[in-house]
Amino acid sequence: MAPRKEVFEGVEWRIRVVADGSTEALVPATELARKAWLGIKGLISGFALKVRMFVKKAWDVGTNDPRKVIHCIKVGLALTIVSLFYFMRPLYDGVGGNAMWAVMTVVVVFEPTVGKSIYFQLLQNMVVFPENLNIYLITGATLYKCFNRVLGTFLAGLLAVGVHWVASQSGERVEPFVVGASVFLLASAATFSRLIPSVKSRFDYGALIFILTFSFVAVSGYRVDKLFELAHHRISTIIIGSSLCILVIMLVVPIWSGQELHSLIVRNMDKLADSLDGCVTLYFNQSGEGTNSKEEATDNKLQGYKCVLCSKASEESMANFGRWEPSHGQFNFRHPWKQYLKIGASMRSCAYCIEALDSCIKSENQAAKLIKQHLGSGCLKLSSSSSNVIRELAETVKTMKKKSSTTDLLAEEMKSAVQGLQNDLKTIPHLLNPSAIPGNKTLETACSEATTPTVTLMELVPVVTLASILIEISGRIEALVDAVEELAKLAEFGINDDKSKHSKMTDKTASDAKQQTEGTMKALQMV
């Protein structure tokens, strides 16, 4: 057999004939090395790509919320300062070589365990509402942990020394039983106190530190001669670490819990108003002719009520931490933070109704066009006036000024819209059967005797349900108005006597009302 040549990417292949007549391809040694190099190169490229993506994600996290970067800088600064107790001999000798307790205090106090439960509750909304995940970065959380750590350590050390003295006076045989009984009783009592809601909300961390410190000092005192010195060094180093944490957290770009709670309530009010407008407008404008950008904008508004529903845990934590903070800005030390929780509860009651409205939009049962057009104007007017009231309340809380006459005017407009919608609901039987008297026949009877285009009862249910929910929302908004008025009274909001600001607010409300009116007319035309 004549020798043959094959060409592959410039490499010459030779075929040799074996004695039995078969052929065998000769693979050059350079081809194996080339494949190995390509494999290694692919691994390096893949690793470099993953590193690049990780750096990009880390950069996005920092740019989206610079407060997280500031928090990391605070931790590094506090650890650097407390490390001086190791680097400087006079400070190291002063704490008896127990400077590690100060370092551990800084690490534990800044560790974000306070917000982990809230983090998991809000994880599903992290993309839409990332601001709710900053619970553990606020100043109040650090003050809470520092105070509880110092208090728990001090009480535990004091009691441990006292128990040690009583046990030592009881004799060597009785001493272990006295120490063991004290550990059992005090640890059980402290653990039970953590189950009491009022104690758990304010001193849960302190009770945990009390159990750890008392058990450590009391048990170790049985074998350690200088127990008082051990307790003294532990308490002093923890006080030093906690003091450094407080100074750093309050002097380096402080993030106040009260301000965060105040801003969260205002944002939730705006989102609640946008969701209410978006739901009703979308229901009466389901023509399928909207652009993708408009549909995305409407969907974003509809998602706002979910933020209100998921904010209960963050509101409670911020209100709890706010009680530990000193006076700052417009907030006094005894600011009525609990009233913000009542406002949040009122908003969530409205958000549950908006969730029901969202279900009406997604319902498979389509409402009759005749009834939809008949109730459309009243529903859109009521949703517009209701959202205007919520926005005005948000402006009241934001500026910390007592409500103006605009709020009362919008509230009366909402009540008038409710009355108009109720009248429209009463005229539905007459609309279906003009010869029927609405007061003498039920809605089901009117549907069965209708002489105008036939409308079944199932076609009436969706739009009538939506109208009923809107009326219910208006009643719950009145409760929200009362809660905001109570906050203004307790927090002693300023008098809204600035005519220029009042004029701007009125113009803004009028502009919003004009835009909503245009949306209402457009929705009615689409129906």
Automatic annotation (TrEMBL):
One of its GO terms (biological process) is monoatomic ion transmembrane transport. InterPro entries: ALMT. One of its GO terms (cellular component) is membrane. It is a multi-pass membrane protein. It comes from the Eukaryota. Residues 498-527 are annotated as: Disordered. This is Aluminum-activated malate transporter. It comes from Gossypium stocksii. The lineage of its organism: Eukaryota, Viridiplantae, Streptophyta, Embryophyta, Tracheophyta.
